[in-house]
Amino acid sequence: MKIGIDFSERDLTDFSRRRLLTSPHFQRRLAAADAVRTEGEVLVNVRRGDY
């Protein structure tokens, strides 16, 4: 699937807001991350094979 062909950027944003951000599992993971990060800190996840 390709953005701009199969779905729009707006569709992707709407999906993220409706499904991902409201997921109880995702909310627990966000809370856990917030509990250990400090103000101004950024987490970058780099998977092996992506570079």
Strand content: under 5%
Morphology call:
extended
Q: What letter string, H or E per element, gives the SSE order?
A: HH
Secondary structure: helix percent: 40-55%
Radius of gyration: 15 Å
Ranges with pLDDT <50 over ≥5 residues?
none
| Secondary structure tally, helices | 2
Q: Major beta sheet, specifics? A: none
The secondary-structure class comes to: mainly alpha
Mean pLDDT, rounded to whole units?
A: 87
Folded structure, characterized:
The protein is mostly helical and 51 residues long. It has 2 helices and no strands. It has helices at residues 9-20, 24-36. The radius of gyration is 15 Å and the shape is extended. The two termini are 22 Å apart. The relative contact order is 0.08. The model has no long low-confidence stretch (mean pLDDT 87).
Helices and strands, with pairings:
Elements: H1 9-20, H2 24-36
